[in-house]
Amino acid sequence: MSLKQFLGKQFIDVIQWNEAEDGILAYRYPMQDMEIQNGGQLTVRESQLAAFVNEGKIADVFGPGLHTLNTRNLPLLTDLLNWDKDFESPFKSDVYFVSTRLQIGQKWGTSTPITIRDKEFGAVRLRGYGIYSYRVADPRKFFTQVTGTRDRYYASELEGQLRETIVARMTDIFATSDVSFLDMSANQTALGEKVAEQMKPAFAALGLELDQFVVENISLPDELAKVMDQRIGMSMAGDLGKFTQFEAAESLEEAATNTGGAAGMGVGLGAGAAMAQAVMGQVRPLAGSAAPAASPAAGAKFCIDCGKAIPDRAKFCPECGKAQ
Predict the structure, then answer these.
(1) Which residues, other chains included, contact 54 with Cβ-Cβ below 8 Å and sequence gap of 6+?
(2) pLDDT tens string for the chain (324 positions)?
(3) How open is the CA angle 139-141-142, to the nearest 5 degrees?
(4) Cβ-contact 71, 83 below 8 angstroms
(5) Cα–Cα distance, 89 to 55 (Å, whole number)
(6) Which residue spans within the chain are E strands per DSSP?
(7) What whole-number distance in Å separates Cα of residue 20 and Cα of residue 63?
(8) How does strand 103-109 pair with strand 122-136?
(9) φ, ψ for residue 199 (rounded to 5)?
(10) CA dist 223 → 33, 50, 113, 178, 227 (Å)
(11) What letter does residue 315 receive in the DSSP assignment?
């Protein structure tokens, strides 16, 4: 190396990273045409880790604190560079900072409904959504499995992979669960904890730690939700007759709010007919059970004028006096 080349080099004696924006998971410290001074200072802040990489191989990892760079605290890098004693000259190495802050407010959701077999309602389709949070826990795995030698890596780039992994695992859980849809909806906290336990190994394989997983909502598609509402309405009504009256009353209310035009008239007539049928259906049993009307006694006849019953041999009606 000529003197001009040596003087043209830049030497680094302080290495540190201030996160300029949210969402950065990994950042490569700019090292182009620069070398690290022997005894240089590495500052790693809380919620950060720093990794030294030599020729694509990750070596030493440093946690929060102030570190002096020498062979004593760079044992793996020393081995990779074949240093048999304390190095005296600057050296070349890539330094990657990894953010270990919680990545909160990450959203997941089913893009299409998941079909499962429900023990109470048969085959149903479910939708769900919620939030989760995670952090980088193992920078070695994260470097080798996810970021590689990228200058920067953002949480948004990992979002699709994690979301699809979550939905796939939830599909497996729903398919093998004996819990009915209604029980799932009523126990979303317990469901979230179960999904989190199932998801942690998948996150760990990427060098991540799943911190929290929340199921905000489990629901049915609109058309199935309407059928569910009808079934609940029938259960609340107690029998089909009462449910028919309930639907007729609902139809009348709808007709009352849509009075304009022929369509409104048709709805009103249809609702009136439905109500009449419902009422008559309830009245008929009562009418059938009523006692039969009294009939005239044998040998009696009726007045030709007022129609009252009179004795068979009477010449005049005792009620109106009309001759018979």
Answers:
(1) 77, 80, 81, 93, 94
(2) 444 444 445 678 889 999 888 899 999 999 877 788 878 899 999 999 999 998 788 889 999 999 988 877 788 887 777 776 566 667 778 899 999 999 999 999 988 888 877 777 777 788 889 999 999 999 999 999 999 889 999 999 999 999 999 988 888 877 777 677 777 777 888 888 888 998 999 999 999 999 999 999 888 777 766 766 676 666 665 655 666 666 676 666 666 666 555 444 444 555 455 555 554 555 454 444 444 444 445 555 878 777 788 887 777 787 777 777
(3) 60
(4) yes
(5) 18
(6) 10-15, 24-28, 34-44, 48-54, 57-62, 65-68, 94-99, 103-109, 114-118, 122-136, 152-154, 208-219, 301-302, 309-310
(7) 20
(8) antiparallel
(9) -85, -25
(10) 64, 53, 12, 24, 7
(11) S
Which residue do the tokens 């994690």 mark? 162
pTM: 0.64
State both tokens at 122: 């048969």
d(CA 324, CA 317): 7
DSSP 146: I
Cite the DSSP H helix spans in 19-85. Answer: 75-80
Q: Which residues pair with 209 in a beta bridge?
A: 135
Instruction: List the one residue out of 254, 127, 227 whose CA is nearest residue 185.
Output: 127
